[in-house]
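Practice set, problem 2.
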Amino acid sequence: PYELINTCIEDTLFEDLSSITNDFYVGYDVARKRDLSIISIFEKLGSVFYLRKIYELKNVKYSDQKSLISYILANPKCRRLAIDNTGIGNQMAEELKDEFGSRLVEPVTFTSKAKEEMAYKLLYAFQDKNIRIPDDELIKNDLHSVKRIATEVSNVIRFDVSRSETDGHADRFWSFALAVYAG
């Protein structure tokens, strides 16, 4: 809910990665044309994740995305990347894991169980005030857009969201969830 999101608002963003002095964790929700590719970078201070940089990429070539994420992974403060390994993210995840190793790159397949685990980790980070994000309407709306749905027949938990031509498909939410998972 917005009320919970608003309790974790703080001016957190930095202009560039050189301003980050502690370890940071990265979430990368991969897309190309229909949705947004989002790379979020969270510096971890104690148990609190501070969003320091967010890259929102719309219709950016994979080679350009790979150059950017490789630049981020080469930073000595980068401790771990959790990357969407589902669908079109599979090749990017495989290439990055081959190049940077499994200690730095963790491909995450978006199964129902994995999405549930990540969504709850992100929720708990907000509930425990262990995350800080800027006062940005797109980010807040994206976080708020995800709805938990339990199917009637099998009681399986799903996380659903409406797709928007301009704002994607909760891409910021999943990138943040991946980053918190990585940390």
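Problem 2, part (b): a different protein.
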Amino acid sequence: ILRQTFTDFEILLVDDGSPDRSGEICDGLSLVNTRIRTIHQENGGVTSARAKGVTHACGEWICFVDSDDTLPSDALERLSEGIHPKTDIVIGFWDERKIVKQQWMDIEEYRKACITGKKIYPGPCARLFRRSIFNKNTFDIPRVIVKGEDMLMNIRLSFTTVKDVRIVPYKVYN
């Protein structure tokens, strides 16, 4: 993430009660790079960690990156090309074979795609979300749901906006 060509961003590392040295590693990174902040919490699961990150975010746009994933070096630059006043969600791709060339998707089509998983990946990765569309219900997902919880979050976000979705035709997630 630190190798991005787009450099105007903050990184929030959420240590979700990790029993290994992850928290210490995050703290060390926060000390050497002012764009990184570490947040420690008791283990609450991925949904809780995402909620904590959004709560502490300062920027207008949110991008989720799971701890075992990476971003191509131009990912944030490519996604930022899709930022537009007429959208709250910008989507890119994680699989080059699934890239579509259309630039916009109306919100109804996007909602259906989130629910069915057709056309686009149903999870929150490879996207930018305007921070203002998050609300108290976004992360109100029972912790017992451990598979598909990210799809539920993404569906909820799609119903908190009436704006169409901007598509950037690039691979922006590994």
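Answer key, part (b): The chain has a mean pLDDT of 94. The chain has five helices and seven strands.
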